Amino acid sequence: MAHFGYENDIHSILKLDMPITNVPMARWQRKASSSNASSGLSPGKSANVSSTSKTPSKTPGKGKKQTPSKMGGDRFIPVRNSKRMDMASFLLSKENEPDNQTTSSKAMSVILNGYDIDDAKILHLGGKPLNAPEGYQNNLKVLYSQTTTPSSTKKTRYISSTPDKVLDAPEIRNDFYLNLIDWSSRNMLAVALHNNVYLWDANKGDVILLMKLESEEDYICSVSWTKEGNYLAIGTSDCKVQLWDVENQKRLRSMASHTARVTSLCWNDHILSSGSRSGHIHHHDVRLAQHHRFTLTTHSQEVCGLKWSPDGRYLASGGNDNLVCVWPRVSDGGLGNENQPVRCWSEHQGAVKALAWCPWQSNILASGGGTSDRHIRIWNVNSGSCISSIDSQSQVSSLVFAPNYKELVSAHGYAHNNVVVWKYPSFTKVAELSGHGDRVLSVILSPDNSAMATVAGDETIQIWNSFEVDPVKKKAMDRMVKPTTTGLHHSIR
Amino acid sequence: MTSTLKGITLKGSAEMVAEFFSFGINSILYQRGIYPPESFSRVTHYDMSLQLTTDSKLKNYLSDVVSQLKEWLFECTVQRLVLVITCLETNEVLERWQFDIECDKSAKESSVPREKSLKTIQDEIRSVIRQVTATVTFLPLLETPCAFDLLVYTDKDLVVPEKWEESGPQIISQSEEVPLRSFTTSIHKVSSMVAYKRADSV
To answer: How many CB pairs under 8 A join A and B?
Structure first.
């Protein structure tokens, strides 16, 4: 708005039909009038004056004065802030008038200070500083800008309520305590159906029968892939842990150490931890002939949940005795006191099979309780406290953290038989997926974290692509990597 | 309103102007985000909805200033009220809201109430406050946490009351100035202007 004034002044000056208002007599005018008064016979002088104004202008469009008859100047000044001109020429012309001394100095002080210093005193109320509450950051940007904040756009991401793929899983054992699926980093899904282990290649879609137990009465209780995805550990009801090489489809070893069925398995590099119905957890070093290195005996009933943290420092175990225990990593030396858990929580009122470590926040563990408990609890392993607890209204059979959108997925059995996606850590429900007809036994994420597979008692495995990252963003990322080679050669003349 | 319906007395005018300042300062604090918007509550005044702070410390501070201002307005010794917004960390002045007050001193002598309808004055005040709100569209966003201060320009020979201290003018270097509307109660004339630091000169 202030700059309009300048423009208006320029426009009024450029009008040729009226004399310039608001500007005192220019020096040449005064000179001309005085020279005219002194001797009218000097037309040459005034002619000179007018001729010098016809010097070519350097900035034609900048609004400089183009009226040769009006403006004669001895010096070319492209821009004149007319206000200052006003005051300055007024003061200059008044310099020889002593009685106006005070007014001129007053005028100067008015220009310089913006106010009359002499006449005013500036006061302010002293005392404590008045600041907004600490930590308050002005977020007018949010109030007044039109674009929506990123978090709100994420909420509207579409999660399909129907699975993207359904695989048949006949004869799957509908047993809460078993862990019958795992998804390898090479995108192979291993499923244990009664006494068979099938591998489904998620890339190609074909199914391979990996192995079959010899006896019909025995069944597979747990499967777990190594991090590289080339070896599969299989826990059986005849108390053995088998290790298979998948590429060659050969069994490498069969490890016997347990006295009851092996219902949970988890790898930590070369250490395989197995939990059994006896309540014991065994650590096996699969490189050694004497594989059984360590035993943890705190649980009194079946150990159905077993998970190593992403950094490999802690092992979380959940049992049918409602306990959640956290064990430190046993160093290869194997000291005596390391068979005591670092943490042991008994807040759950039901069997804890669902365990998940948060991949983006260290030391955060999520656990879910069975039918009598139904709660999902978040623990901080460092402080030992329960950060939050939420009632999910059904038996929690499995939990997994989905890092793409920072969510927690819980699989439920009685009574809703659904899969719930919660926003973490606010625990607002993002989606409820009710594709299964019977209780969901396990949920597991794909290696690229964009999809999840759920297996249920209705003998189906359903694949949900719920966590797909925006392909536009992906394209932008790819474009950043590729160098842009546009036709630069065109500009060379 | 304590002023008579028929005319405006000096006292009434002083009250109206002080009230305008109270609402105006609250509006500026709300609009510029100096204080969190949740700490403001909506009230109706001048036939429009305005925001008033609920923070007790701030309320007390403002009522102190405004009541002192009312006194000075009554005595016609105040010339200007300036609300300065400074960056909390660097103490640099970012915005300066200046309200010039011209007082008709002749009202002090005669106690005859002036003729001006209350409604007209209210309309004028309303348009000033509306304009203050509208300035948000072109004022540069205040990115950093800010503090504010209220400066009062008074007559030189005024006795400085307790708790008040002298201060500098806190002018902004390289400022853009925007004159805003003015209103007059026929005894006091208040004209407003906002000066802000030019965004590119930061």
So the answer is: 112
As to burial, measured by CB atoms within 10 angstroms (0-12 exposed, 13-18 middle, 19+ buried), residue A471 is exposed
At A142, is the secondary structure helix, strand, or coil? helix
* pLDDT of res. B139: 83
Look at A138 and B146 and tell me if their CB atoms are within 8 Å: yes
In A, minimum Cα distance to B83 occurs at: A124
Which of A42, A438, A138 is CA-nearest to residue B142?
Answer: A138
Contact flag B154-A115 (C-beta cutoff 8 Å): no
Neighbouring-strand partners of residue A232: A225, A244
Q: Looking at chain B, which residue has its C-alpha nearest residue A125?
A: B164
Q: Would an 8 Å CB–CB cutoff place B63 in contact with chain A?
A: no
Q: What is the distance between the terminal CA atoms of chain B, rounded to a whole angstrom? A: 45
Report pLDDT digits (tens) over A92-139: 776 555 444 455 555 665 555 444 445 677 777 765 555 555 445 555
Interchain CB distance below 8 Å, B167 and A123: yes
Helices (H) and strands (E) in chain A, counts: 8, 29
What's the pLDDT score for residue A452?
92
Residue numbers in B near A113 (CB within 8 A): 169, 171
Read off the pLDDT band of A160 (50, 70, 90): confident
Cβ-defined contact of A130 to B148 (cutoff 8 Å): yes
Q: Taking Cα atoms as reference points, which of A269, A351, A377 lies closest to residue A315?
A: A269
The residue written with tokens 């005051």 in the block is: A87
Report which of A183, A180, A184 is spatially closest to residue A196, judged by C-alpha positions.
A180
Chain A within 8 Å of B172 (Cβ-Cβ)?
Answer: no
Q: What ipTM, to 2 d.p.? A: 0.70
- Residue A372 is given by DSSP the state T
The C-alpha atoms of residue A233 and residue A286 are separated, in whole angstroms, by 10
End-to-end CA distance of chain A: 44
